[in-house]
Amino acid sequence: MRRERAVAAALLAACAVCAAWGQTTPDFLPGTMGKPNVEPQWNEAESEVPPPPALRMSGLVAIDVDSASALRFAVDPQSVSIGKDGVVRYVFVATSSSGAVNAAYEGVRCDRGEYRVYARSSGQGWRSVDTEWKSLFEGFEARHVRAIAKAGACAGHTPNRSAQQIVQDLRTPFDRKFGGSSAP
Q1: Strands 61-62 vs 72-75: parallel, antiparallel or unpaired
Q2: Which of 71, 121, 130, 173 sits at a 20 to 30 Å CA gap from 45?
């Protein structure tokens, strides 16, 4: 009995370590292993951040974030860009079943596994927000950014090849991406 308890405790501890480790590593990005690249000197120049594009509600690319949610999630394909600073920027739109809209102009740093929000809209124009870079791996509010990164914004620890490739990958069902592999 004592031995069974010791084995159970060891397994429980190992699971806790694996779960904690999984929260800090970006292994969900296809083809990656290990921790994000570290570049402590990088700073985003405000002059490099283009203003939010006009909010469009047609031609959006659906993103699978949470199948249990009543919200529909999407990215405006015309808003997708890769800046000289390596940040993938896009407009994310969440629409409720009643038609209420919440949109965000966001950026993701694939090399660091981080994102930030530049502006928000409820369909009546953009309002700037001053946010810091946050981890893709922490918090409920990052789940849609993780889904976008995983669906095609990032190719490992780098931005995907081009804005056009990102949009193409966002449109492709996950089970048909990356050579048909179902591996994350």
Answers
A1: antiparallel
A2: 121
